[in-house]
Automatic annotation (TrEMBL):
Residues 26-162 form the Dynein heavy chain AAA lid domain. PANTHER family: DYNEIN AXONEMAL HEAVY CHAIN 17-RELATED, DYNEIN HEAVY CHAIN 1, AXONEMAL-LIKE PROTEIN. It comes from Anopheles maculatus. GO terms for molecular function: dynein intermediate chain binding; dynein light intermediate chain binding. This is Dynein heavy chain C-terminal domain-containing protein. GO terms for cellular component: dynein complex. GO terms for biological process: microtubule-based movement. It holds the Pfam family Dynein_C. InterPro entries: AAA_lid_11, AAA_lid_11_sf, DHC, Dynein_C, Dynein_C_barrel. Residues 171-463 form the Dynein heavy chain C-terminal domain.
Length: 465
């Protein structure tokens, strides 16, 4: 961060600082822009917790923003704070941003860094780093050297745990690179009595033995007369599971015949063999499945749990006492079904409804029956913060606790006019740690602190870690 703030300031000189009639305001906002530029550029290193997607923020964004600042200050008697924040956050830097949650993050930084208090020096860019007084060009560089705290996630508004995640990702990438440099025909089998072919055959036998029969959709549909929104979701999930299981069985049996010499080995079969041997989920399975970051064995174990959950639900089609939200191919369809069920019962328009999320103090085992309205959901994890069960709100993470589990959440449908808006953090829910395209829904969670803190901290809920 130190080098980046200096580098941002290096794009200007003493003449730049003196070119505006409102010198104090211009210099204060220019310095704030330099710090903002350094933060948004360097935040990329924290991966999805930093930004959902990678953006090409560059020096041109900073220099153009400064000249826009000059023109606006010269043309207005008072500092147009809101206009400046909009121009910088939605056009100059925001022009690169394609993700709505990243846009919110960019906007929040500017709301924190660009306020009237900035000119008076009553604003902190980060803990222990207040806005500088009115200085000359060299003075600003010296101020950065003397006052900027040492490198830490705190400088970006993130929790120190974010650095653990960043370093873990770096390590994983290094191991992955080393692994990919290895000859593909070597491995554990070279120093073992078991050949690669035998290892793959054992995996195939194990998987085929554990995979259950497909769901009998004709029989399931015949058992149900009233097609409620929940039952329709259950049908859709069973159908998608059938497609996935069918592909697993087909490709595994085909490869087994190829290894026995009864079929000619094709490129697809070779690829599948390599994936099984190196504990990777094959691409043709992933296409029919759901986002997941697991290795093959963990992925398959997770698949069997999903099938058991579906079997239990489709046995009588009664909603489970607590629903494992991560177990769905399409969790959005289940959450939408909650609204559809309530809308149908009360004859409310669906487009005027939303979901209310109440985090309970209980866990899955504590529930024996579903609620009268809505559903209890379990299996969510929080990243960037934790849920304090005693206080009933979001709280700072505990050190080295990266993904604390959430208690059961009670979700029900309400009309939009009854939605709570005070002391609320709009928390995005994602399927995996990759965030971005795996977005599911927004849960409004209670907070006793400003929601901006959790926005800058990259706080979200995850269905799978």
């Amino acid at each position: 961060m130190l080098a980046n703030v200096h580098k941002a300031l290096d794009n200007f000189n003493q003449e730049t600082l003196e070119m505006c009639g409102k010198e104090a305001e211009f210099k204060a906002i220019l310095f704030s822009l330099c710090y903002f530029h350094a933060v948004v550029a360097e935040r990329r290193k924290f991966g999805p917790q930093g930004w959902n997607r990678s953006y090409p923020f560059n020096v041109g964004d900073l220099t153009i923003s400064v000249y826009v600042l000059y023109n606006y200050l010269e043309a207005n008697n008072r500092v147009p704070w809101e206009d400046l924040r909009y121009l910088f956050g939605e056009i100059m830097y925001g022009g690169h941003i394609t993700d709505d949650w990243d846009r919110r993050l960019c906007r929040t930084y500017l709301e924190e860094f660009m306020q009237p208090e900035l000119v008076d020096g009553d604003l902190n860019f980060a803990t222990g780093f207040p806005a500088p007084p009115n200085l000359d060009y060299v003075g600003y560089h010296n101020y950065i050297d003397d006052n900027l705290p040492s490198e830490s996630p705190h400088l970006y508004g993130l929790h120190p745990n974010a650095e653990i995640g960043f370093l873990t990702t770096l390590s994983e990438q290094a191991f992955k690179t080393i692994f990919e440099l290895q000859p593909r025909d070597s491995g554990a089998a070279s120093s073992s009595s078991i050949s690669r072919e035998d290892v793959v055959k054992n995996i195939i036998d194990d998987f085929l033995d554990k995979l259950p029969e497909e769901f009998n959709m004709v029989e399931l549909m015949a058992r149900v007369e009233d097609r409620t929104p929940f039952i329709i979701v259950a049908f859709q999930e069973c159908e998608r599971m059938n497609i996935l299981v069918r592909e697993l069985k087909r490709s595994l049996r085909e490869l087994l015949l190829g290894l026995k010499g009864e079929l000619t080995i094709t490129t697809d079969m070779e690829t599948l063999e390599g994936s099984l041997f190196f504990d990777q989920v094959p691409d043709n399975w992933t296409k029919r499945a759901y986002p997941s970051m697991y290795g093959l064995q963990s992925w398959f174990a997770d698949l069997l749990i999903r099938i058991k959950e579906l079997e239990a639900w489709s046995n009588d089609f009664n909603l489970p006492s607590s629903v494992w939200l991560a177990g769905f191919f399409n969790p959005q369809s289940f959450l939408t079904a909650i609204m559809q069920q309530t809308a149908r019962k009360n004859e409310w328009p669906l487009d005027k409804m939303c979901l209310s999320c109440d985090v309970t103090k209980k866990w899955k085992e504590d529930f024996s029956a579903p609620p009268r309205e809505g559903a209890y959901v379990n299996g969510l994890f929080m990243e960037g913060a934790r849920w304090d069960v005693n206080v009933g709100s979001i709280a700072n993470s505990l050190m080295k606790e990266l993904f604390p589990q959430m208690p059961v959440i009670y979700i029900k449908a309400i009309t939009q006019d009854k939605q709570e808006t005070k002391n609320i953090y709009e928390c995005p829910v994602y399927k995996t740690r990759t965030r971005g395209p795996t977005f599911v829904w927004t849960f409004n969670l209670k907070t006793k602190e400003k929601s901006a803190k959790w926005t800058l901290g990259g706080v979200c809920l995850l269905l799978q870690v």
